[in-house]
Amino acid sequence: MRRIAPRRLIAASVVGAIASTGALVLAPAAQAATVDYGTHCTNPYSTPPDGNVKIDLVVTPAKSTYQVGDVVSVEWQWKLYPKAPTSIPVVGKVPKDSTYAVGTVKLTGAQTGNFAIQGPQINPEALPGQDLILSNPVGNFTLTQAGQVNLTPDIYSTFTTAVGQKVETKCSPINPIAVSRTLTVDGPSTGAPTLSANPGEFNAGSTVALSGANWTAGTPSVELCDANGAACTATRIAANSLVVANGALSGSINTIATVPTGNYKIKVKVGAGEALTPVKINAVARQATLSPNRGPVGTTVKVTGKNFNPNLTVIARGQTATGYVLDETAAYADSAADGTVTIPDFVVSDPSITAVWITEGVDEATGFALPFTIGAALPATLSASPAATHAGGSVAVSGNNWTPNGSATASLCAADGSACSAARISSGPITIAADGTLAGNVTIAGNVGEGTYKLKLSDGSNSALASVTVQRRWLELNKTSGAPCTFVLVTGHGYGSLAWVNVNGLAGDSKTSDWAGAWANANGDFSIWILITKSNTTGIIASETFHSDRNASTPFTVTG
User: Taking 90 as the threshold, does the pLDDT of residue 517 lie above it?
Assistant: First the structure.
């Protein structure tokens, strides 16, 4: 017998209790035909019993005759009170405002399709055996066809949140459902749905805007078809933001990046309506990187690529300076469904190799070369920005030639690179990409004194140092760049208690005539606006008046 966690058990008890009633809310008497049909309900945690629902579909505004183009609101009114179970384990009640309903209304007659309606998550608390009352779902749709348009309730779901979990109970009809409301619609029919793409030619993977008219309300689905509109599939659609409002379709889609060059048709479906539009798609260039791209003979190289045709063998072979391909050096791997590929074990086994030649299978027309330099491996590099910070301040780190996909640790050392300690670096993170590029940040521990240090990073195989100055005083700016005649709010920390501070612009190592003055408070902090007027400004400096060596500076860039 399978056991479920107590949290899920509580949610299942409450959701199963609600779902077992078969009907949800008593609504006031309505001037619409009530339909009565049986339902079969399911949810992930229990087996609710089959039941009956009685529903009115009330249309607003109420008219004897509507016009094509009218937008109407439909309220799905439940005509029965559900009863809470006589026993509700653990929680002992159906919580207030825990459940809402989503229904589907079917359109038949002159206009066909489906549209969804939803109610708010508002319901009073219900104790065992009491009536359970939920809000009525409501939705809008646009009348697009003249004639008799029939509205019929169809499947619905309830969504209940209990002890942090939201659980859907799906209820499907088990017998034919009568029409609840018939609308008489006058005016010229708007015709079949239309569809257009902008641009009509694009690269695989890029964003394409779609638009159209005469669409019924609902959720659009998208497929990519061949040039004849056949062999349609949704697997080549990576993203879809399409919506329908008042009969108009708008939004965008993205295809996957590995669609081959060719003529296609995009198909959009909403309910029973569909339309196609022709497009031309250009395949994006295959791309790959080598890691490393330099090293002695015998170096093992990882080839990482994308935009290849999916599920094909990709081959890496050495190439000489004359373009001759060394078949005996071949290494290969199959591309994934998304067009990515990793060949982890190409070996630079021949001293004449100057590049790695990449092909899809043995199709040389797909080939391209990636340069490789035989020689000593390049050392790992490291830089830190800003070069001056303060205890508790963060520094961004970057570099190249690190171990691909590795991990790096940081420590703070003395100015000569000795006495390194990881305890003086309080956080990260730091990542190394497949091409050996390092990026991330470190935070200087709050107990580090002012002075000049070396920041050291190591990935187990490589290490590098970068100079960092830790200041007692530091500045924060509300903006780090601006056009000439920009006001900048300068906030300083770590200055002498009640010290008078001069704030100036910097041009290289020299102060400019841009100036502002401020008193530091008892904690040594101040804030002051300064107007930066000089186009050659490279930073801002703040110095105590009577101790000019007690200063801090920070970069500022003049733009425009």
Answer: yes
Cα–Cα distance for residue pair 117/157, rounded to 1 Å? 11
Cis status, amide bond into 173, omega within 30 of 0: no
**What number of other Cβ atoms are within 10 A of residue 85's Cβ?**
19
Query: Does the pTM of the predicted model rise above 0.70?
Result: no
CA angle 161-54-170, nearest 5°?
35
Beta strands in 188-340 (DSSP E): 196-198, 201-203, 207-211, 221-225, 237-240, 243-245, 248-250, 252-255, 262-270, 273-282, 287-291, 294-295, 300-306, 313-320, 325-334
CB-based burial, 427-436: b 16+ in 10 Å, e otherwise:
eeebebbebb
Amino acid at 517: G
Dihedral sign, Cα of residue 414, residue 419, residue 423, residue 427? positive
- Predicted confidence at residue 1, as pLDDT, reads 30
Look-up of token digits 């760049």: 481
Query: What does the block give as tokens for 382?
Result: 């490291």
Give the residue from 438, 436, 472 showing the smallest Cα distance to 455: 438
The CA distance from 481 to 176, in Å, is 69
- Distance between CA atoms of residues 285 and 346, nearest Å: 22
Q: What DSSP state is assigned to residue 407?
A: -
